Amino acid sequence: SCMFTVAMQSVVEYVNPGEQRSGHRCGYCKSSDGRINNGMSATTMTCQDYQDLIERGWRRSGTYVYKPVMKRICCPSYEMRCDSDHFQLSKSQAKVLKRMRNYLLTGSTRKGREIEPAQPSRRSVGTALCAAGSAKLSTGKLAAEGKSGTGTELNRCGIATTCSGQDGEEKVKKRTQEPKSLEDFMFGGQSMAHKLTVTLIASDITNPDFAAVFKEEHRVYEKYQMHVHHDPPGKCTERQFQRFLVDSPLIRCKSKAPVALGSYHQQYRIDGRLVGVGVIDVLPNYVSSVYFFYDPEYEFLSLGVYSALREIALTRQMSKQCTEAWFYCMGYYIHTCQKMKYKGQYHPSYLLCPETYQWVPIKDCIPKLEVAKYSRLSSSDSDVLVETEEELSNVLVLARGTAMPYKEYEYRYGPKQRHLVQEYLLLAGSKVAKKMLLCL
User: Which of 62, 198, 233, 324 has the most CB atoms lying inside 10 A of its own CB?
Assistant: First the structure.
């Protein structure tokens, strides 16, 4: 394996799918061998390179970065992103926010009847999330657990938001008549039935703040995996949890955003108890969702939907702070999987065409996916991308401890790796292939 590391540069080892032709078990349709991926093991990866890979259909699981073999896979998986700046809250999503607000204010656990509208509402997600307990960003230290007080506080490790106070409900009643962004709201007072705290903390086992909550997170993860996905205890070990959701190849770095780029865990606490964790990557123009798990005892709060809305609100906040477009990346959309179709309820959203790598409105993709599970989604006349010999020559590789363009590698060591490098270039794209170090 590749042990070479370079400061602020991506170092990867490509796994040729030709070695995995039989595939492996699919977690969506339960096929025993239908899941076939291209893969890279990443020692390190810059956030910009990972964002560029997302725009080629790649995702990460721990330090493994993978891209489905779309024409052969049992459940074609299309990269999906939501335009957070123009996000339109649906009635069912608003009901989730109201349920959280009511629970925090009164302790009510009444779920009520879910209604899915035909058309999304144009209500501001910022306004609605305020009603459900969001607050304003301000610089400072992390809020101490259990401490009374208001607002959101920020430091290098993360963001904490605290919702408390009955007088906040009166503020919402007045302000919802005049829609404002999420950042304009802050709650006060101390007489709520429950207090919600949301903390964004860097995903780094060497970070003392994270190490202090690692075991607590693992207990919730184990409970979730066994209850929701029916995993046996042996599949939910601390080591498995760390490899899947804590380890990350992303190199943390400063940005215009209020937090550094890199991998984070967004923790949700009610009255100090950890009830949910969203694993996210903050990239130059994306907040990318990796995974979410929660305490099954709090299922009545629809925490999966609630956390997605919080992450969209965070994305909107990044966009506002940086004065440029940001998107919420929701992972893969799988039209053939019923339990994944909920992602289509987040508007406006786009799917990545697997042939042209253009983003296509999901409403234009659905008719094509109803006909065939694999489809060229783009209607443009663009050709399927094919990399040139010149681009192959410029692929950056690492051989015997020395970085060099592939042209020089082939001159020194011969063409034995040409097919592998061609395939890597085709899948990763020349934009990153000339920047990332490919171990040979």
Answer: 198
User: pLDDT tens, 141-181?
Assistant: 333 333 333 333 444 344 445 454 444 444 444 444 443 43
CA angle (238 as vertex; 236, 243 as ends), nearest 5: 90
- Tell me the two tokens of residue 265: 């865990």
Amino acid at 241: F
The single-letter code of the amino acid at 75 is: C
Q: How many residues are listed for the chain in this entry?
A: 440
CA distance 66 to 286: 18
Q: How many whole angstroms separate alpha carbon 334 and alpha carbon 336?
A: 6
Query: What phi and psi, each to the nearest 5 degrees, are found at residue 108?
Result: -70, 135
The residues with which 38 forms a beta bridge, in sequence order, are 67
Query: Distances from the Cα of 322 to the Cαs of 325, 327, 328, in angstroms?
Result: 8, 12, 15
**Cα–Cα distance for residue pair 137/317, rounded to 1 Å:** 9
Quick one: which H or E segment has residue 282?
strand 273-282
Chain mean position to CA 70: 21
Angle between helices 167-175 and 91-106 (to 10 degrees): 150
Tell whether the model's pLDDT for residue 402 goes beyond 50: yes
Q: Are 427 and 357 in contact (CB under 8 A)?
A: no
Write out pLDDT tens, residues 305-349.
Answer: 999 999 999 999 888 888 788 999 999 998 888 778 788 889 999
Closest by Cα among 173, 146, 184, 177 to 162: 146
pLDDT at residue number 128:
54
DSSP of 302-331, one letter per residue? -HHHHHHHHHHHHHHHHHHHHTS--EEEEE
Please state the separation of Cα 371 from the chain's center in Å.
Answer: 29
| Residue type at position 4 | F
Cis peptide before 348 (omega within 30 of 0): yes
Token pair listed for 409: 């590698």
Tokens 């009444």 label which residue? 110
